[in-house]
């Protein structure tokens, strides 16, 4: 897909929310239901069987959630619809699933959900207490051992800025290089919840979950804050901590040069 | 149940969290699964078949949640257990359900979960946007029409203090009188979420949900803030707004003269 829809198609921008539990992730796959499949099936149903094409601002893995993913949907021009009609029509057909279109609008000219994006914001939530999550089941990473958020915050400062993040990059990462600029990382604690928020132009595969896994080692006292800096400088995935589970991760915002939603 | 357990029983205090979706409420009933039934069955399983008796700080209706309900559990002394063993044992047997014991401790002398309580705190959450809840499905009241939280806050001031709350009392309420003292009511908006928190020694049946239902009428502009005051003064349930649905309500804290958890 390029920056223009095919002839006879209109490009829409959608603000998407979904619960990733039970899905194989955003992308269409053989081995189970994906967000993309559900959305394209809802689109086809709404447009009377004509196929629609979608692309996302960034793929999410199985079990990862989104409250603010932005996707593009190229729809046939054979049926004229308003943004509200499209939003409500897609939501009607999405209803069996925990997937919803929060907003829809015509895409700006030359706009692509992925290539035009200039910022992504993720939230990673840890429930730090002895007993399992109940009201937040499947929405948080449950860590039983007490975590010191102060030392986690201290360690997080080493990650902010432009670095070679090879130590926090999945082997499966398809990006052309390991250098990224982490614009922001905040770690806040409220009762038993530790919330890590990160903002960057783009992220490597598993980067946020790998941050969370290593920061938890710092919070438990297994690593010093300075050791996290050494791990970063090693540029070696085997030096870093385990990948934190997907259920704690949520894509909360995607930014474009022009504010869309 | 009185302020002392029966001979041969030990009284425990439990801090309970549950997702009320699909339950008939706290109390044991004929027409479906209750929180109390699940907890007592878990207790019986843990104590080798011996029955346990429970009572709550305050009943919750079907669909209402709790993150901080306090209950008492009278367990046979035949098996000596520590607070941690009781907590973990009950959680093991509760596992099929979204019910969890966050903490357990021996009850203070002469303590009763309901009669000793001196404060209850509830949170009522409204999702105020056009499209249905996804990540918060079954946890919020979905109100599509835009609500003005400023005027809701203005109206809320009339409710604070000691009043005859007959206008906000369910017909089924079993309390001896309609006068209560509302110690605190805060209304805060964060993006699409409007959160109403209330604190009082005790509440009438449906009082918080009736507050939410009437405040939403003020927020929509159907009522003025002053009209809510008139409704309060009318002391007539038929004057007030509809009862807001249970899924937005959560019991978040119960206070006792001595801090328990």
UniProtKB/TrEMBL annotation, chains A, B:
<feature type="binding site">
    <location>
        <position position="122"/>
    </location>
    <ligand>
        <name>substrate</name>
    </ligand>
</feature>
<protein>
    <recommendedName>
        <fullName>tRNA pseudouridine synthase A</fullName>
        <ecNumber>5.4.99.12</ecNumber>
    </recommendedName>
</protein>
<dbReference type="InterPro" id="IPR020097">
    <property type="entry name" value="PsdUridine_synth_TruA_a/b_dom"/>
</dbReference>
<keyword id="KW-0819">tRNA processing</keyword>
<comment type="function">
    <text>Formation of pseudouridine at positions 38, 39 and 40 in the anticodon stem and loop of transfer RNAs.</text>
</comment>
<dbReference type="InterPro" id="IPR020094">
    <property type="entry name" value="TruA/RsuA/RluB/E/F_N"/>
</dbReference>
<dbReference type="Pfam" id="PF01416">
    <property type="entry name" value="PseudoU_synth_1"/>
</dbReference>
<comment type="subunit">
    <text>Homodimer.</text>
</comment>
<dbReference type="InterPro" id="IPR020103">
    <property type="entry name" value="PsdUridine_synth_cat_dom_sf"/>
</dbReference>
<dbReference type="InterPro" id="IPR020095">
    <property type="entry name" value="PsdUridine_synth_TruA_C"/>
</dbReference>
<comment type="similarity">
    <text>Belongs to the tRNA pseudouridine synthase TruA family.</text>
</comment>
<keyword id="KW-0413">Isomerase</keyword>
<dbReference type="InterPro" id="IPR001406">
    <property type="entry name" value="PsdUridine_synth_TruA"/>
</dbReference>
<feature type="active site" description="Nucleophile">
    <location>
        <position position="61"/>
    </location>
</feature>
<feature type="domain" description="Pseudouridine synthase I TruA alpha/beta">
    <location>
        <begin position="156"/>
        <end position="257"/>
    </location>
</feature>
